[in-house]
Amino acid sequence: MTTMEHRPTAKDGGVGAAARSRSWGWSSRLPQWLRVLLGTLVVLAGVAMLVLPGPGLLGILVGLKMLAHDIPAAARAEHAVSGRIKAGARKAGARSRHRRPR
User: Fold this and answer.
1) Rounded distance between C-alpha atoms, residue 39 and residue 6, angstroms
2) How many Cβ atoms sit within 10 Å of the Cβ of residue 57?
3) What phi-psi label fits residue 25: left (phi over 0), alpha (psi between -120 and 50 degrees) or beta?
4) Neighbours of 42 (CB within 10 A)
5) Is 36 exposed, middle or buried (0-12, 13-18, 19+ CB in 10 A)?
6) Where are the domains of the chain?
């Protein structure tokens, strides 16, 4: 790591300038307002899918990842949601391993 790079700290929520400035491919060419609008719409669609048929948590996670490029608070929320998804997957895996055969 060179002296010019920024290391993420607790102060900025673990998401530093280095993480926000990485190349995002096609989304880095979009204007910021459009990225924020698309990310917000995907998060809202994910919230709707929590009660409607569809992968709600996945939609929320994808939308937060889109927003995390421009909004540090969204990066922290994305980290929390992905942690909940991983914990749920571990819990489901443990349940299926301990199930008695019928």
Assistant:
1) 25
2) 16
3) left
4) 19
5) middle
6) 30-97
73-87 confidence digits (pLDDT tens): 888 888 888 888 888
Distance CA 11, CA 78 (A): 17
Q: What does the chain come to in residues?
A: 102
Interatomic CA distance for residues 16 and 7, integer angstroms: 6
Neighbours of 39 (CB within 10 A): 22
Overall pTM > 0.70: no
Query: What is the mean pLDDT of the segment spanning 35-43?
Result: 91
Measured at the CA of 86, the angle between CA 78 and CA 48, to 5 degrees, comes to 55
